[in-house]
Amino acid sequence: MASTPQQLAIETPTTLRAPRVASVDIFRGLTMIVMIFVNDLAEVKGLPWWTYHAPGKVDAMTYVDMVFPAFLFILGMAVPLAFEQRLRKNPSQPHLWLHVVMRSLSLLVLGLILANAGAGDPALIHMPPYIWALLALTGAILFWSVYPNNDSRRTLYNVLRYSGLPLMVVMFAIFRRTTKDGSVAWIKTAYPEILGLLAFAYLTTCILYLPTRRWRWAPFAWFVALTAFCALCAAHWVEFPHRAGLYLWPFGNGSDTLISMAGVATSILFIGEQSRRWPTFRSKATYALAFAAIVFIAGYILTPLGISKIRATPTWSLYCVGSSILIFTLLYYLCDVRQKTRWAAFTHAPGSNTLLTYLLPDLWYFILGALGITWFRTHLAWGFPGVIRSIVFTAVIVAIASLLTRSKLRLQL
Question: What is the pLDDT of residue 243?
Fold first, then answer.
């Protein structure tokens, strides 16, 4: 007898923790690879407009504008399954909330390190700013690495882990920068980089989902409410998110959270305990495609409010959600129902060891900055040769991530 899709999902080979769903890891890995590519390609000049982010004042979106939302969507997809696993191991609600808060803070700390990497004043921190960034990230890697369960080396691993935290604390404590008006300031917090934005999206998604997780319709209701809130903000009927900032109002205008919550809703259809209501792929796909169609229609209706990633408009958010639903449905059918995963072997490290893969390009840039090497900025930075450079760079980063993953070097918050 052929296995059901739900059985296939459970029987998927494990990577970090069982159970894992192949299509989720592959979708995450593909998104990570595209993100590395487009981030490097952003430094290449002389390419068509659709190879960059669309300008904030223009009502348009490119494929580049869809990469970060795909990450948000996958982040949401992982939430229900991760909660199920944690509650099986430890049913304590306070313990789960502590994990949510600590994971959010960890992502925010990493985001602030990356956002301030080149901003430090060497005369005030007594070292080149990129050396500061390398030391801060070294502390992060030491602290959040997954160490082997080896009793004979446990003392060594504990020393490594708990030397990472004070190293990060010291780097934050000594950081100083000079502002445009000449005054001395500490860490810039206004834009906490992509990891910081993921932290706020994760926190707000959990705030809404965790108390209502027993109701399978709740993520869809939250998605509708968040979309309405985003539309009200885009229409300037609600203004306080712009004045409050993410640290006081982590939902922002609701766009990041609605994309992540759409991932939660899609996860409810395909994976986890609640997906058993739809036991066949046909039933899952029917509801998923209907969900995507409604999302696209809603996005079209809200087009007068603008289409822009920079402005985080509802239409941009909904078009990205609809596209992510379609991509995941295809991947789920191909990878979990048909079990065709060999073609995606190159996504294993980016999909299962994502945080380390994400940090590798920054580590490379910081090393070049610390050494004063500018060759890569001044050469192969125009037109088609620049595209080839970005492709090669992406392949090298993925290869290094694969090598480090095979060597058991993993990061986990």
Answer: 79
Cα 251–Cα 290–Cα 75 angle in degrees, nearest 5: 35
Structural contact between residues 204 and 251, judged by C-beta atoms closer than 8 angstroms: yes
- Report whether 94 contacts 346 (CB < 8 A): no
User: In whole angstroms, what is the distance from residue 274 CA to residue 216 CA?
Assistant: 7
Residues 6+ apart with CB under 8 A from 138: 164, 167
Runs of H (alpha helix) within 175-248: 193-209, 218-234, 240-244
Q: How many CA atoms lie within 13 A of 18 on its CB side?
A: 6
Kindly indicate the confidence band of residue 26, based on its pLDDT and cuts at 50, 70 and 90. Answer: very high
User: In the structure encoding, which two tokens stand for residue 106, read together?
Assistant: 């960890």
Looking at the DSSP bridge assignments, the partners of residue 145 are: 411
CA distances 146 to 158, 259, 407, 412, Å, are: 11, 29, 12, 6
**Segment 28-59, tens digit of pLDDT:** 999 999 999 999 999 999 999 999 999 988 99
Q: Which residue type, as a one-letter code, is found at position 356?
A: L
Task: Tell me the whole-structure pTM to 2 decimals.
Answer: 0.90
Average pLDDT estimate for 151-169 = 88
Residue with tokens 């694969």, as numbered in its chain: 402
Sign of CA dihedral 214, 217, 223, 224: negative
* CA 400 to chain CA centroid, nearest Å: 20
